[in-house]
């Protein structure tokens, strides 16, 4: 499948905005990180502040995406050791409802519901692995959901905020999710990025599909 080439001027402005916004955001995140660090010293939350996971980026490049940790230490191993839970995880769009997910801490539920757990991705944006706006980065197992459209999906940088998120996030499963992400790839522009940004802000405040 042919891949649409994006305008160089658009990509330059997009990258410039990514750098400026992520630098400012990371400065403001210093006190937030300190508070979360203190909370993560106690009880069920005890463990590292950050969680990293392999994701697939532009042109199939593998990178580590960062989040504030919302799960218990060793969460992935716990998921893999429970076949029924893992099957439900796959069938539910590679997620589990928070009230059925034994891996998520109480504080982690708050982080996810408020989308605060996503904020460390500004570090990924500054590095250039991600952009502020773009399709959400996925794990390798999810690539099969895109079939022969996977190269098109991976022709752009993944984003911290995407059209799928703005449209309902975890309320929208595959294959509809693929269609929404690829709609963004086909229509990416500075104006559309601004529209997606504000739609995401509204979705965050509504906690729409956040878990």
UniProtKB/TrEMBL annotation:
<protein>
    <submittedName>
        <fullName>Exopolysaccharide biosynthesis protein</fullName>
    </submittedName>
</protein>
<keyword id="KW-0472">Membrane</keyword>
<dbReference type="Pfam" id="PF02397">
    <property type="entry name" value="Bac_transf"/>
</dbReference>
<feature type="transmembrane region" description="Helical">
    <location>
        <begin position="16"/>
        <end position="39"/>
    </location>
</feature>
<dbReference type="InterPro" id="IPR003362">
    <property type="entry name" value="Bact_transf"/>
</dbReference>
<keyword id="KW-1133">Transmembrane helix</keyword>
<comment type="similarity">
    <text>Belongs to the bacterial sugar transferase family.</text>
</comment>
<keyword id="KW-0812">Transmembrane</keyword>
<feature type="domain" description="Bacterial sugar transferase">
    <location>
        <begin position="14"/>
        <end position="205"/>
    </location>
</feature>
<keyword id="KW-1003">Cell membrane</keyword>
<keyword id="KW-0808">Transferase</keyword>
<dbReference type="GO" id="GO:0016780">
    <property type="term" value="F:phosphotransferase activity, for other substituted phosphate groups"/>
</dbReference>
<dbReference type="GO" id="GO:0005886">
    <property type="term" value="C:plasma membrane"/>
</dbReference>
